[in-house]
Amino acid sequence: MVEIVDKLSEELNNQKPLNIQVFLNDLVGNDFNTVFKLLPSFYKQIQRKKGEGSCFIGAMPGSFYGRLFPQHSVHLVHSSYSLHWLSQVPKGLVTESGLPLNKGNIYIAKTSPSNVHEAYFIQFQKDFTNFLSMRSEEIVHCGSLVLTFICKNDEVDGCDFWELLGITLNDMAIEGLVEEAKLDKFNLPLYAPSTKELKQIIEKEGSFKLLQLETFKLKWDSNMDDNSEKEATIFDEKSKAKYIAGNMRAVQEPILVEHFGEEIMDDLFERYGKKAIEYMKNGKGIINNVVVSLSKWNKKGESWNNGKVVPV
């Protein structure tokens, strides 16, 4: 990013190099100190290329569903693989008497009733609208918002990895390794929207102009065969199972431990990895992703022409 900004600055004949200030955001429980330990080597890398420092990095802990920055202070916000996480588990997943409506599932599944689907979408709609509204306060006029997160195909959910986690937990419940009552009460606080849903929410909230929206697919093991060496490394099924399970564990374990306890984690993810390999043999194991590019616009007195704001 620094190199691209510097190159564009030179093309515009700016006499002085631009100073870039970057704020890293995550929830307050994130280990920012570990991230900060990587910064000295990063700064040295920039200095070797440029001879001086032009990038300054800090952190802004907190939920991005609330305000994080002063008004009109940010030029670019990039959210990477976070916005499918909801601010809370949706309400309305149990009956008035407390019976679980999504019994046997930990997320939206083929067997989930329609009111479960609706509850999840309502919560995502509320959260994503809040996110856009908060960022519109913080981003400068014509500033940019670039979002990358998991989505569903308009025809197929495409969230097999969560479905598979639920199946694995159900197997363990049948064997008595997980309490069925605990499993029935567990629902993941996340939602993979469709592109149609995203467009509707962006248009309704109204603070941003949608410049571009693209989807792409990744296999669960998509990074394993990427090798810079001339001879690609061939991974056996056991290695792939461990890799896929490790990726899922890194993301989901804190939530699972809080609800089910730490004792079952090794067994859970070993089982998960083995099932993942079988899923991929059957043509599953695909993650649907979306990249959205937005620009803040002034609703009063301006319109858009080929991506540029012009007076009306």
UniProtKB/TrEMBL annotation:
Keyword Oxidoreductase part of the UniProt annotation: no
GO biological process: methylation
Keyword Methyltransferase found: yes
GO MF annotation terms: metal ion binding; methyltransferase activity
Source domain of life: Eukaryota
Pfam families with a match to the protein in the record: Methyltransf_7
SUPFAM superfamilies for this protein: S-adenosyl-L-methionine-dependent methyltransferases
Keywords: Magnesium, Metal-binding, Methyltransferase, Transferase
Family: Belongs to the methyltransferase superfamily. Type-7 methyltransferase family.
Identification of the protein by name: 3,7-dimethylxanthine N-methyltransferase-like
Organism of this sequence: Nicotiana sylvestris
